Description:
Layout: E1 13-18, E2 21-26, E3 29-30, E4 40-41, H1 44-55, H2 67-79, H3 83-92, E5 101-102, H4 107-128, E6 135-136, H5 145-156, H6 160-173, H7 176-183, H8 189-196, H9 198-207, H10 211-235
Parallel strand pairs: 5-6
Antiparallel strand pairs: 1-2, 2-3, 2-4
Helix pairs in contact: 1-2, 2-6, 3-5, 3-6, 6-7, 6-10, 7-8
Amino acid sequence: MSEWKAKRFWTDVTVEAQGGVFAVLLDGRPVRTPAKAQLVLPTKALADMVAAEWRVQEDQIDPEAMPATRGANAAIDKVEVSKDAVTDMLAEYGDSDLICYRADSPEGLVSRQSEHWDPLLQWVHETYGVTLKVMVGVMHTPQEPATLSAMRADLDRLDSFALTGFYDLVSLSGSLVIALAVYRGQLSADSAWRLSRIDEYWQAEHWGADEEASAAEDVKRAAFLDAARFLRASLT
């Protein structure tokens, strides 16, 4: 997103209600997305989050330090114009969900996956009235269409902003179920991230942590937590 990197040119950042939505203003002028649309947010909580990012910018705008602004830009410029396609793509994760594919060895990893992922399967059954198939290995086994439809119903209720946050939860974790559990308040974002990394943590415990992999883990975890905050603010 370096194309919109620029020097700070404003003094005051405010949030203004505009007919049921909220605009972020810089010295009274609206913030614009990379596609030149006005940056308006569906909730005051999300607008306040975006405004806070603009307030702390110093001499030069740093887009990497503005996850809520990036998310809002994506929601307006990208997700809104292809919402059905994004929803379809996310729903498809349920057909090959991370928590449904289990190791056959070693026993410790098998037990850990069952201990932490089986409660999520039970939660899906209780919440959506469906049962996900669990497979050993990586060979794809399709889920029942009715199962996928039941979980997809939550996605169809999300607006473009909430769907943007949800997208990152799914893509970073590899699990529609884990993202749904965060959305419905069943899991905290931090707990959800740890559940999505059971295999990686097992490997690190037994073979040692790789410095480069650990650094990448930190970046992904921060993005996951940012996405959860963005999603929650979109719904507040």
